[in-house]
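Complex 433.
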Amino acid sequence: MAKRILGFLKPNIELQPWDGEVSTLDPPDRVILSISQPGQMPFKPVVEIGESVKTGEFIAMSPSRTGIHSSITGKVSAIGPGYNREGREVLCVTIDRESDDDFAAPHPVQNLVAASRDELIEAFAELGFASPWKPRSLESQLSEEEKLPITTVVIKAVDEEPPLAVQRRFLTEFAEDFSESVAAIRKLAQDARVVVVVPEEFASRARTLLKDVEIFPVTNDILDCNNTLLLLKITRKFYPFHTDPRADGIIILSAEDVAFAARCLHKGKPRTNKLITVSAPDLPKPVTVRVRLGTPVRFVLDSLNIQLKSNDRVVFGGLLTGIAQPDIETPITRTTNGVIIIPKEKVIPFSDAPCINCGRCVQICPVNIQVNLVGRFSEFGLFETAVKNGSGSCVECGLCAYVCPSRRPLMQYMQFANSEFEKIMNQVSQEGV
Ligand code: SF4
Ligand code: SF4
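Predicted structure with iron/sulfur cluster bound:
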């Protein structure tokens, strides 16, 4: 996975090839569906506690009419605060399963090729696809950012770090859905660039499968798959912390979100599933499974006969930037690509041990931050100094913390400095200083 030559060159960490079918887990006993995101306008619940809901029924609606749907058939047992994988409070709807799936009435769009652009936009919104193209009827209600034209659509069919093997599969197992959806996106994007990022070994297959889009092959080196570094190569512009590529009309979509769009439009049913790669000592190798959105991770582990022992870590995400979860009821969301179980004897905890100035973090940082120094500024609350010395350029690859012999939480120090500095700047602008 990691290669280093003679101890001099930067180690590179690569995604691994995968094999094995995607299996589907049974529906869980309960789902917990987040209907808000920190810093964004919350969706409005359209169900009440005690109400019965069908699979695919609306449970919440956003101001721009994108819906969130139930992923099982059951009864709403709670509407209230929960936590996302970063531990930030979000509003959640909990549904306890009562029976096999009873699907809400479908609204299929059979012929994606013949459907007009407006029909596609309406259908995407109705089926909960987080589409950047909004129905004309909502134009007066859109924010200034939502009204900005889209100039570049980047579709990522690559995973970001090992052991994840989710997005790459949409060029193989789910290629038909993916190519139909890319054609629909091509229509929606009109004159905008549509760039599909693929592993280099699939480039020729992608060129045959996907029409009228740019194919952007990348290697399996994780730095080739990092969002910020990818955008730099595709757009020639660096979008560090504090900058939003949407302001320049650029959006990034995952291959999975895109592929589900065609499947949902054909069936007229909203998306209820998510693919995740699960890695655990109880498994001979990582497996990729399909689960219902909102499934508590506890249910995933039980279904795969994974026994958690006291103090084992449950990590959402990949090897380098995954986040440990304090609670096994944390649900799988649309952005959960993987679950890794790290047995307690293999957990190497972060520490506040002093930096020994070995220089490994500086050597490995792809954007040449003096990570050892900037980490210390952040550690001691000198956030402005940290930002002035480059923390805002961090692309959150996690390599510095991975190589640090003192186990310092270096990427987290960058994130901490950036978010604290942002808070300070917001306060200053609110006070009009
Ligand atoms: S996570 Fe570390 S190595 Fe990666 S860009 Fe940020 S500071 Fe550099
Ligand atoms: S890798 Fe860790 S110990 Fe080495 S210079 Fe960087 S912060 Fe210091």
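The two ends are 50 Å apart (CA to CA).
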